[in-house]
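Troubleshooting: if your tokenizer reports a length mismatch, compare your output against this known-good record of 359 residues.
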Amino acid sequence: MDFGLTEEQDMLQETVRSFVDNECTPQRLREIFDAGAGHDPALWQGLSEMGLAGLVVPEDFGGAGMEVLDLALVAEVLGEGCVPGPFLGHSLACIALVNGGNDTQKREWLPKLAAGEVIGSFAAAEDASRWDPSDWSVELKDGRLTGVKLYVPHADLADVLVVGCSRGRLALVRRDAPGLRIENMGGIDRTRPIFEVVLEGAPAELLEGGQEVSGRVRDAALSVLAADSFGVATGLVKMSVEYAKTREQFGSVIAQFQSVKHQLARIATDIEPTRSLFWYSAHTFDHLLEDAERSAALAKAHITDRALETARQAVELHGGLGFTWECDVQMWFKRAMFNRGWFGTPEILRERVATLAGW
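Known-good structure output:
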């Protein structure tokens, strides 16, 4: 049995990595990060032209018709490069429409989303930790939404929002809908700005499928965040190795010191074995539905914890420089922090896994 990637999946990652290396250099990333918008139209256009905006959209609607595993493999590369942009929320909006939209909604939105002509985002959280569909309280009454959603990525750019509402349902809200107000929350990760979305009787269209579709989107989100975090940690390991080979102390590069070698080896061996966790969780989304919720929660909980610890170690390996704004490590560190908290902390997810197991 082959547990590796297909030739097409390897090629997908290589293509995206080549694009990131050329178009999102550390200097360009720093410019976008410092600006605070978390978006570069030219970068998003390039990703869209490669088909990433519609990766999981069926071919009948202009997409690539790929699976969530392919989406996760792309997220890994984007995390490794700390690439800014609306990829996360946009992909989840696509998944929600693919799995829960009616024919009219799909025809109207999916071709434009797949082409990157319009941007989507996904609004899940309420209060500090109410991420799960069973906890949503935004009311949908007579085709209008009332309530508040928090931590919505790139809501300022979104032409359409998929909003989680009471009883685990999902609804579409257009950016220009009356009664919709968006306010910047000043999040820590400048590659993914977050916003508060206030709905005051905003017109909305209900998606079909109810809580089952909401759960599917949640599981996809957890797998993608796990993959992104794996990429973040991998990028930090590479940065730390390169820095250790150039930083001199006591007349020698620090990579020669045994303690530094051990620290680098430890963070590399801590993160690399977790690759199979996000591969498997993303695979279950399309092929092993009975295990999708459990595996997605486990992958996100474990990998985001490991990624944040890798970020802490990377700061130490960069010495006093690692704690400063001028050091690039801080961008990856903040992305790891975002990934750990968005759609539920590891503590919340492990509690869900225990509940699923009947413990």
